[in-house]
Amino acid sequence: MMLIALLVFSLVCGVVGGQLVEWLIGWRVKRGFQERYDALMRDFREGKELPPRKPTSPISIASNAEAVVRSDKRSANTLQMAWNDIARVTAFKRDLMTVDCVCMLLADADGHILEVDEEMAGWQELCEALPQRLPGAKPFHEWFMQVAFPAFATNGTDIFRRP
Fold this sequence. Notes:
Blueprint: H1 2-45, E1 59-61, E2 67-72, E3 77-82, E4 86-95, E5 100-108, E6 113-117, H2 123-133, H3 140-148, E7 157-161
Antiparallel strand pairs: 1-2, 2-3, 4-5, 4-7, 5-6
């Protein structure tokens, strides 16, 4: 009888103890992410330069400045959309589990879409060029906070719509 009681006690302690350890580890990991996120946001608000992100396919403005160009590494294609063809620009966020990625869809009247994101080289240049090349497009400082917060929500925001 004593042996059975000891086994049951060990089993209960193992399960409860395991759950407690799992909870503590999860809490610490979440806290670590939250601390890094808070530090990045504090640096952003204070105007400090944020650490660079891993580069992905680049975005560029075509040499004749008539089109937005994106290299697609997966298919070795170059995707482009002429500024005059852009009918709508929408910014949104993708939830990547531990971080968000701000993205932008450029669409023409025929339904062709060019998707770009903040991890691509040339993102900042594109954001600066939008209001210059598309009259009526919202500048970056007007739409970014709407898209960025709250975290882990899509927050779709129209930046430009051709009348």
